[in-house]
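Module 6 notes. Inverse folding takes a fixed backbone as the condition and produces residue identities as the prediction. Think of it as a translation problem where the source language is geometry and the target language is the twenty amino acids. Below is one complete input and output pair. Work through it position by position during the lab.
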């Protein structure tokens, strides 16, 4: 069972959330504000810190849409400053045990043996965890970088500016994250989400981009879903602009101006110069241009490379998992129209799925910890337009007939569920539907865990949260292995 501290915090959390939801239900919102809000006044916010002090993760906030409040927070781990090392080839007969830890966790990593880890979760549809952990541990020693040649990285008064020559420092994968909160609360810069994203950035050794989407009821469906799709397209534009700047022999500048020489095809160089001139070189985000992997030798399904085949994984938490799943389906439907971005995998953490026909867990655990079923239905009433409210709405129930695109078109999907979460069974059922059509879709169920156990760990301090982050790292490194030396699971 959950600890006494978890139970007490759950009671307090549910009391406050229910009061806020009922107040918003009673407050009329006749005219929706298209600009919207991404954080509530009562939300505890962690300020951005563009330095690597403390835990070794720098953060930056970017408002990426001039007509709405849509924003992102970038989490850049200090490992990007290291010089790249030659990759080590993994031996196929590796015998490392399940107690191997994932590289990049730093001080956040704890030493545990395999007996300590197994009781915390069950897996469905996944291969042997010992072999997976061994492969991930070996993968942690791989370097994801370029030549390592160039000037020193730009630092001013301890603040990292990111204006570095292409090739300096390491190139890291990018993870797109959507926070939870029932569509009506939470934020990408909240203290809890900031803590979670820092942990993921360090343990997985990735650049995390947390999306600050518009909240309901000020902006109902499909505003949050459209914001997620807009951010993915923004990443595609960043890839194109960075590639254009690189092809012209000009690195992301401090101000305006462009390089004159492009090399290669003059017509292609002129076209790329025109693109950069049209959008403005200042729109190239320097942290991404300097440290998101711009080369193809180290590829894999999770690396966002600024060349011909950009590939991305989405991670959604609670209602953020619904957004991630929507964005993934939109990306599948778009196909080559989304080039150069391609979503190749997703991680759904205790997704906010529901339906009109209750599952076993929805009946047995209807009054479970933190988010009980009654409160979640209130949240859905605030999120969905009044004339569209249905527990079988496509945004709420992924198992409705006629769902598009077909399950067989979906990318690999890791689903994380908690033992004491009423939403558990429908998430497992969704994963089972994916496995029926041969999609790699394992489920990890964590013992004695509650909804949001991993993303509220700053308050709950549960051992399952650390184990969950390391399991996510195993999944991530499965998709960023060096080409020609992919892991075998």
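Target side of the pair, the amino acids:
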């Amino acid at each position: 069972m959950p600890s006494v501290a978890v139970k007490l915090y759950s009671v307090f959390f549910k009391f406050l959330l229910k009061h806020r939801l009922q107040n918003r239900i009673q407050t009329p919102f006749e005219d929706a504000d298209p600009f919207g809000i991404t954080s509530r006044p009562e939300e505890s916010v962690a300020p951005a810190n563009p330095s690597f002090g403390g835990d070794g993760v720098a953060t930056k906030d970017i408002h990426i849409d001039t007509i709405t409040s849509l924003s992102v927070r970038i989490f850049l781990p200090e490992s990007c400053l290291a010089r790249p090392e030659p990759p080590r080839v993994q031996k196929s007969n590796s015998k490392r045990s399940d107690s191997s830890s994932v590289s990049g966790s730093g001080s956040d990593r704890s030493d545990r043996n395999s007996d300590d880890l197994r009781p915390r979760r069950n897996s469905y549809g996944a291969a042997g965890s010992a072999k997976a952990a061994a492969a991930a541990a070996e993968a942690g020693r791989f370097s994801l970088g370029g030549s390592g040649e160039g000037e020193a990285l730009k630092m001013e008064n301890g603040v990292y500016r990111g204006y570095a020559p292409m090739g300096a420092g390491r190139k890291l994968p990018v993870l797109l994250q959507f926070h939870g909160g029932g569509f009506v609360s939470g934020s990408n810069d909240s203290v809890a989400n900031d803590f979670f994203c820092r942990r993921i950035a360090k343990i997985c050794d990735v650049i995390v981009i947390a999306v600050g989407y518009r909240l309901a009821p000020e902006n109902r469906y499909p505003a949050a879903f459209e914001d997620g799709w807009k951010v993915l397209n923004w990443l595609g534009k960043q890839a194109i602009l960075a590639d254009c700047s690189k092809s012209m022999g000009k690195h992301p500048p401090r101000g305006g101006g462009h390089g004159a020489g492009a090399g290669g095809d003059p017509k292609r160089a002129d076209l790329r110069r025109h693109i950069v001139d049209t959008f403005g070189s200042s729109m190239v985000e320097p942290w991404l241009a300097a440290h998101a992997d711009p080369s193809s030798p180290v590829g894999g399904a999770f690396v966002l490379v600024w060349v011909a085949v950009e590939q991305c994984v989405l991670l959604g938490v609670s209602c953020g998992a619904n957004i991630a799943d929507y964005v993934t389906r939109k990306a599948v439907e778009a196909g080559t129209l989304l080039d150069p971005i391609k979503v190749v995998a997703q991680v759904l953490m205790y997704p906010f799925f529901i339906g009109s026909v209750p599952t076993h867990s929805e009946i047995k655990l209807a009054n479970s910890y933190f988010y009980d079923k009654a409160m979640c239905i209130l949240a859905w009433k605030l999120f969905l337009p009044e004339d569209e409210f249905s527990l079988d709405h496509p945004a709420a129930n992924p198992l409705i007939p006629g769902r598009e695109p077909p399950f067989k078109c979906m990318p690999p999907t890791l689903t994380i569920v908690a033992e004491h979460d009423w939403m558990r069974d429908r998430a497992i059922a969704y994963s089972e539907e994916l496995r029926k059509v041969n999609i790699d879709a394992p489920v990890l169920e964590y013992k004695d865990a509650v909804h949001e156990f991993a993303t509220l760990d700053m308050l709950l301090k549960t051992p399952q949260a650390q184990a969950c982050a390391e399991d996510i790292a195993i999944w991530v490194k499965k998709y960023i292995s060096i080409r020609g030396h992919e892991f075998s699971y």
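Reference fact for the lab report: The radius of gyration is 22 Å.
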